[in-house]
Amino acid sequence: MKSTAPTWLMPVVAIFALQTASAFLSRLIPIVAPAIAEEFGWNGSSIGYLSASNALGGLVFLVAGSSLLRQIGGTRMLQLLLILGAACMGFFLYPSMGIALAVCCVMGMSNGAANPAGSEVLQRFSPPGMRNLMFSIKQAGVPLGGMMAGLFVPVVIALAGWRFSLFVFAFLVLLPTVLTWKLSAVLDETSKVEKRSGSWMPTMQSLRIFVAPLTSITQDRGLLKMSIVGSLFAVPQSCWFAFTVIYLVDGLGFSLSLAGVVFAVMQLGGVFGRIALGWISDYLRSSTATLSIAALFSAVTTVLLGLTTPEWPLWSIIVLALISGCTTASWNGVHIAEVARRSPPNLIAETSAGAAILVSVVNIVAPTVFAILVATTGRYDIAFLCVGVCALLVLVILPRDRR
């Protein structure tokens, strides 16, 4: 008898590949930016603003694109945004901070589409007993994309220069997009009513599109709390992603290549951490317990990062980055699955987008405030301490369910 693959395998693989490409597109910004800034004469704090602009792009899509995603389909929408982001990388060649900020914003739109698109697909295809694991596997594509950026980007820049490297990076983004292009016809579930009515056009009646995602997460107290928890987790995650490389280079005297390796180790921890936390959550049948553990380790590792000095041995910083990746960068899958579980079945795309909007706002604000703190105090340790406190607040906000 001929064996067949489980029905969830193809959706998970396709969404995982697109999630990885989207993460790579965003994570390469804080790694390639130091080389661009050095040539164009931009200061180090510009990296924080570029990262914030990238998060703004994700927020723009989450606020305005949920209806368009429902009409086109999650997989197809994500593929189109990856193509757009790859095409925009060529504009980095112009020595203009304004153009760079606009480019980062456009590149971030795929990151905004990844969560609601993937959640909508996996919620339909994932077996109930494996849902946390399936969502965590999807989210493991985020640190995998970051790990690829940390290892690959500095090497290509060193060998070919950052200008030619942009075209190599664009190819890497387009490759999984092309390979999964035909699968959207199988995976996507689109709204024919909205297609016929043309509700994507900006009219007064369509104003609800902008508030629907945020309104949807207020319908249940536990859902709202879980959404706020995601925004608190986003504070340390966004600051680790935006400032690890520049902190290691400017604060500890690392080379760009060595800092990229540490960044890649952190992302590697995220790959295993997201899958491990998803498995633990399903095993314990408690997302709250799993997220509490992640919050504690996230706070400790973030504070310790701020206390590092050039005298610390390299292995200790690598271990710190690995542990942080397993926790600070690994909460997403469990959190997204819990948001989807608490959502009404017909509002999963909206509630996922609403929770992701809060995360995206923090991804804009946190790196900006962090950069301002460092610029005004001249100290990274104070900024990292404040970030660690935000992680501890998760323990206060988490909803306490009996089940």
Automatic annotation (TrEMBL):
<feature type="domain" description="Major facilitator superfamily (MFS) profile">
    <location>
        <begin position="7"/>
        <end position="403"/>
    </location>
</feature>
<feature type="transmembrane region" description="Helical">
    <location>
        <begin position="289"/>
        <end position="308"/>
    </location>
</feature>
<feature type="transmembrane region" description="Helical">
    <location>
        <begin position="229"/>
        <end position="249"/>
    </location>
</feature>
<dbReference type="InterPro" id="IPR020846">
    <property type="entry name" value="MFS_dom"/>
</dbReference>
<protein>
    <submittedName>
        <fullName>Nitrate/nitrite transporter NarK</fullName>
    </submittedName>
</protein>
<dbReference type="InterPro" id="IPR011701">
    <property type="entry name" value="MFS"/>
</dbReference>
<feature type="transmembrane region" description="Helical">
    <location>
        <begin position="81"/>
        <end position="109"/>
    </location>
</feature>
<feature type="transmembrane region" description="Helical">
    <location>
        <begin position="255"/>
        <end position="277"/>
    </location>
</feature>
<feature type="transmembrane region" description="Helical">
    <location>
        <begin position="355"/>
        <end position="376"/>
    </location>
</feature>
<feature type="transmembrane region" description="Helical">
    <location>
        <begin position="47"/>
        <end position="69"/>
    </location>
</feature>
<keyword id="KW-0812">Transmembrane</keyword>
<feature type="transmembrane region" description="Helical">
    <location>
        <begin position="382"/>
        <end position="398"/>
    </location>
</feature>
<keyword id="KW-0472">Membrane</keyword>
<feature type="transmembrane region" description="Helical">
    <location>
        <begin position="314"/>
        <end position="334"/>
    </location>
</feature>
<dbReference type="Pfam" id="PF07690">
    <property type="entry name" value="MFS_1"/>
</dbReference>
<dbReference type="InterPro" id="IPR052952">
    <property type="entry name" value="MFS-Transporter"/>
</dbReference>
<keyword id="KW-1133">Transmembrane helix</keyword>
<feature type="transmembrane region" description="Helical">
    <location>
        <begin position="166"/>
        <end position="187"/>
    </location>
</feature>
<dbReference type="InterPro" id="IPR036259">
    <property type="entry name" value="MFS_trans_sf"/>
</dbReference>
<dbReference type="GO" id="GO:0022857">
    <property type="term" value="F:transmembrane transporter activity"/>
</dbReference>
<feature type="transmembrane region" description="Helical">
    <location>
        <begin position="140"/>
        <end position="159"/>
    </location>
</feature>
